[in-house]
Amino acid sequence: MSTTEPVLAAHGLTKHFRAGGRRVSGRSPARAIHAVDGVDLELRSGQVLAVVGESGSGKSTVARLLAGLIPITDGQVLLDGTPVRVKGRRAFRAYVRRVQMIFQDPFASLNPVHPVRYTLTRALRLHRKQSTGGTLRGAELEAALTELLERVHLTPAARYVDKFPHELSGGQRQRIAIARALAADPEVLLADEPISMLDVSIRLGILNLLADLRDRLGIAILYITHDIASARYFADRTTVMYAGRVMETGDSESVTQQPLHPYTRLLVASAPDPDDLAGAGAAAVRDRSTGGEPPSLVDPPPGCRFAQRCPYATDVCRTETPELIEVTPGRAAACWGYSAREDRPAVPATEGASA
Amino acid sequence: MSAGVETDPGVARDAGPTAEDPVLEIRNLSVDYGFGDDPTHVLRDVSLTLRRGEVLGLAGESGCGKSTLAYAATRLLPPPGLITGGEVWLTGRDGERADLLSLSDAELRAARWRDIAIVFQGAMSSLNPVFRIEKQIVDGILAHRPRMRREEARERAAELLRLVGISADRLRSYPHQLSGGMRQRVMIAMALALEPQVLIMDEPTTALDVVMQRQILEQVMELRERLGFSVVFITHDVSLLVEVADRIAVMYAGEIVETAAARDVYTRPRHPYSAGLLGSFPPLHGPRRELTGIPGAPPDLSAREPGCPFAPRCPHAMDVCRTELPVLGRTAQGEDGRLVACHLHTAGAPLPEEVGR
Fold first, then answer.
1. How many CA atoms lie within 13 A of B132 on its CB side?
2. Tens digit of pLDDT for each residue in B61-77?
3. Chain A residues touching B215 at Cβ < 8 A
4. How many Cα atoms within 13 Å fall on the side-chain side of residue B335?
5. pTM above 0.90?
6. B301: number of CA atoms within 13 Å, CB side?
7. Domain A8-18+31-257, architecture per CATH
């Protein structure tokens, strides 16, 4: 199922929002919020890529950029190796036929005045054609609708087609939202925190459903989350973002088990872990990192964005921005500690070691 | 609020059987939403004891009544919430006991914040955006300590901010000038202003990222050791509770289904719902395994079926589970200090593996 060529890729993806607020003088240059800076991503068929980050790290902006919902400031999105330009209605519709998005809040993403049938048949009629050509209708439409509902495990389908969103539970609503995305037979699903608004006991049901779609239909999935444990559970590869930049990327298991970047280490050490109550190693990581908060993204200074909280930061970290450095095959970290520079900071190879 | 069932003033004459110095005892608390002929029973006969100095975790999914329990116990429940029965006994530092539900409004106003303080869920929306932090803390202190001079209250406010790790010059800030984590700390500082005995934290860190969550929790736990208050910690994140709480009460559909020491809930859950809830959080370390969550969805409280509310989702449901409501009682293993409301434990048959370890 896995092909080597990515279905959807982003190179140097950058988004700057214009900052509002007062200007000191009318002539002063507009300030920009650097929401996303130089992010590279690759989504492959039948694989899940998780983007993990805290609120404000730019992870949702990445999803919106990839979905073509907001214009890109700089960089490129490639679909099957071809640069994407979603200018105009037709181009946009052709693009979303292949790249669909699932939103965080199924309470808000479904139109409350339309029953399930309308929501899904509308998507089907927009994106699919009758076998004889022309718009999908009649028995074929009905069959497609039933098949969609069955695909997201809402069976018997007849029980759900005439329901309104308010008659469904959160998990069922999210399944309808997923079914709507599947109506287009997409190659890529962009899932922006698809489970964070749901009851905890049904979250895994949704993740397992998405994993099932990945395996059966070979869809490439981008999974945006703040929960690194769920990224480990669900995603094949994980990219960690902080303050608009990629900090680390690699296969999910090693990113969570042997994190390289000091930020990832802090993130992993901060996650609740009932199995490690003594948690000496984790506590040591936390103690070592200085407290504080993500930097302001309004015209941020050069250097690593994590530098002011990093226990190992040196002058080079504060003045020059590190690119992703390949540490071992398939694993990269944007940290000067892994560079070959003379003046690199001394980041220990594994955590728990003395600082 | 015509909440009290008792008519005499809420000072107890007999102390009753006290289990290890309780500071807050909730007895048979029931809450309905709606005034009509067909109200929704959101809490049914909930009893819970908070011991002095302990961190009690309330776990459960959204809509299971954990916040309702906290607000009802402090009489903060807004209409259409209505307390229909029960008692909430608060033991003061001097050993005097009072039923919060039968206090007069003036007594209640005095007891709130001084004895019980709450850190609300959304710190962003709990602070008044048009006043500086200083004014909000000082006003609160002066309302309870009318004889204190404003200058003293101001010093106290500065001290409180330092207590939660914010520099005192932030007193002059407006809420929007603080980050989410700082606002949450300000809320905690305010809650501690009058050195309450009980601190109720309602999902205090849900809106924060994990690093900030960890910092704030460690701070609260350190303050608790220093100042000696008890904490009721409400969250849906069981794995977090296992770390911070001494004891955990698991709620489902407006009832407590299991209480036990935090460690025991994690390693040896006794209620199928607790076991399912624990299986809903993928572990960050250890072996990767397939998890399923819990099939189905939480029940609609306005259309209760007879029997155990968890029965439709329970993999071990028996016939009796669909007809009879289980009561909180001892586990089949007869362990001390833990209670479970499940027919499996009274049926006498061997327990399924996931609740029988």
1. 12
2. 888 888 889 889 988 88
3. 291
4. 18
5. no
6. 18
7. 3-Layer(aba) Sandwich (3.40)
